[in-house]
Design brief:
Blueprint: H1 50-54, E1 79-84, H2 89-120, H3 123-134, H4 151-187, E2 190-195
Helix pairs in contact: 2-4
């Protein structure tokens, strides 16, 4: 006998009808994101470049940036305390000689220029006229200031004083260097404090 709907009945027969195979749906695994790996150092012990370090993930708490208008902490000036323990007499003599020569040349040039200015202004002629008015009229020779302070005599005196100045300044400076070295050996020298701004 057949059941309703044309389907064979399994109650009257000893065998059961084969059931169709139905597979159960399987869950697909979710894709796993690749974990970033730290770049390996290059051969030779060199560190990875900035492009490799930029890919490294940041770990830990974020760093705090200083606030307050974008101005960083002002660094204090360093102070260094030095002592001049010894002065080389030979170097002092050379430097003092050169400075004395320069001072002697300047002195000669200033003396000559000053004499030319006074002569151009007529100061020497006025002095001769004033002396001739004061001096009583006698049959002797008339006084002339140019006989005493002529250009040649003034220039010669300026050169002589310049040479004397060179010798004295060089000797005094060299002697002062020796005296400073002696005093420095006793009291420790001149103390200096230097700062970098």
């Amino acid at each position: 006998m057949s059941g309703q709907g044309g389907m064979p009945s399994a109650a009257g027969s000893g065998t059961t009808a084969p059931q169709p195979w139905v597979s159960a749906p399987t869950a697909t695994p979710a894709p796993v994101a690749p974990t970033p790996t730290a770049p390996r150092p290059a051969p030779g012990g060199t560190r990875p470049g900035p492009a490799a370090t930029a890919q490294r993930p940041r770990t830990g708490a974020p760093t705090k940036r200083p606030t307050g208008g974008g101005r960083g902490k002002r660094t204090t000036a360093r102070r260094v305390k030095l002592a001049v323990s010894r002065v080389d007499p030979w170097s002092v003599m050379k430097m003092s000689f050169l400075l004395a020569v320069a001072a002697g040349i300047v002195g000669v040039v200033v003396t000559v220029v000053l004499w030319l200015i006074l002569s151009g202004m007529g100061v020497f002629a006025d002095i001769d006229r004033l002396v001739s008015q004061i001096q009583p009229a006698t049959g002797g020779s008339q006084f002339k200031i140019m006989d005493y302070i002529g250009f040649g005599r003034v220039a010669s005196l300026a050169i002589v004083f310049g040479v004397i100045d060179i010798v004295l300044l060089t000797a005094v400076a060299t002697l002062s260097a020796f005296l400073y070295n002696i005093c420095s050996a006793l009291v420790g020298g001149l103390q200096l404090t230097l700062t970098d701004d």
